[in-house]
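Format notes (please read before filing issues)

Several people have asked whether sequences and structure tokens are stored in separate files. They are not. Every record keeps both together, in the order shown below: the sequence lines, then the token lines. Line labels are part of the format and must not be stripped during preprocessing.
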Amino acid sequence: MSTSRARVGWIGTGRMGFALAGRLLDAGHDVAVYNRTRSKAEPLAERGAKVVDAPVDLVDRDVVFVMVSGSADLAQVTAGEGGLLTHPDSVPRIVIDSSTVSSAASAEARGKAEARGAQFLAAPVSGNPKVVRAGKLTLAVSGPRDAFDEVQHLLRVLGRGVTYVGEGEVARLVKICHNVFLGVVIQSLTEITLLAERGGATRAAFLEFLNDSVMGSTFTRYKTPALVNLDFAPTFTMPLLSKDFDLGFDAAHELAVPMPLAATAAQLVASAVGAGHRDLDFATLILEQARRSGMTLVAENTEIDDGLSPAPTAED
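Then the structure lines:
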């Protein structure tokens, strides 16, 4: 199969799935989509997608991506009634799951796919719809190396970074490690930003300096508008971050790897959740840090580039 001519299926067109399926369509791929609420998938038909009524209707596709909300949803769309793997005679050759699920749920789905003769890749992502539109999504992928080699050009349409990390469910652990680091970095970033502000710098000025230095990153630049203007529209909430810390500590315990810095950051995140910061973006950690520092923050109302201007797709 030439990946440039692959017939692609997509299960799950929520905010992330919709944006990613759209990138495949914009790159000229033949895409059929399924979503539990059909109306959320139908706008993709205007961009050339075929909308189907059940996951099993995608069995004629060469490659099927899955991006659903959780472990139970993955089990349902793969092996439940009308699931992708339930057709008596046929299954897609390669299933790529980018859902946020446990390693156990991923392994179960992998086993069922392999029992039917399909190859299964775990491909969790780092990013949100705005990151997708900017072409800066990254993916960690694990599973059979030959399957990865076959579809990596498709994966590269989705974002700028595609890394093969090993066999089995290794990609799930890699994503958890990534999110633990996310929590440590955002806590550190709030601390140093408020230290600079207490000393006389504006948050905008300090973060501009940081972002232009060797310590700046895509992440620090992307979070700068939230920290400066106190705009906490959610991209990733505090309870979700706390959950990923817990998953990281479970793995650390199993693998005998101490994580003292992460443990401290996790306690501060848990404290913020307990203080009621549940539904807004995890950058609200700066409000808790300000409270502990005896500071009252006001929005600086400064126009700031978050570094996520849209980029062309890989096929442009």
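For reference, the curators noted about this record: The chain has two domains: 3-167, 173-292. The chain has a mean pLDDT of 94.
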